[in-house]
Task: structure prediction
Amino acid sequence: MFLFYTAFSVACWPGSYIAKSSTRYNHGLVQQRQQRHKPKKPAKPADLRGEPIGPSSVKQPSETPNNEVAYRPVFLLVWSSAKFKAHWALFIADAADKTFKSGKYIHVEGNPVDGFTFQIVRGWDINKSRRRPQSPIEIGWVRADLIVDVPSNGQLVKESVPRDQLEAMLAAVPAPARSFNKVTEGDGSGGKRKKPELSDCQWWTTRCVANLVESGILVPPQRGLNKHKDPRDTVAQAPRH
Result:
């Protein structure tokens, strides 16, 4: 009965209405198919600028002389002595250490009698050092891509093999040879002899800083007490005893 009534009703409706309904129905199907097969907009790529790919890519500090280049600070360590000249070393903190207390220091070890040798001390922590230096003096900034933080697995490692470009530049500066109680030929006035300039760790560090500044590798800090100050002047005013 229901089927008969439906068929009869449809057959009795005007043809124009049936045609319009059919057209609307077909148009709706086309729209659904178009939306179904419409290509989706590609998702925006993730912003990876904040994800470091290595220690040298960490921007520390955030304020740099050039916004497109990351820099890392270089410090001067001074071990004071009541009887002898202070010992100097260049210190580069690990990129992950925001307190600038742990990292590596580079120096020459020895004495004027026997001479000095180039040395890199990795895995050093100022808070764990038996003989603590004065507070590190920030002397300048170096491009981060010249520095590599070599893992030491929590151990204090001493070696003379450079592992990054900055270490190689410092290793290229000859360590002082024996100079104590040695004399050089005089200038010819009366045949007198004179003692040469005493070369030690302070002399070597001063030469290293001068070379880095003159080559444009070491630039003045952009913050702190030595802001915009020539690193050579900062080293010249550092404690010597």
Residues 6 and 12 are 10 Å apart (CA to CA). The longest strand covers residues 115-125. The chain has a mean pLDDT of 78.
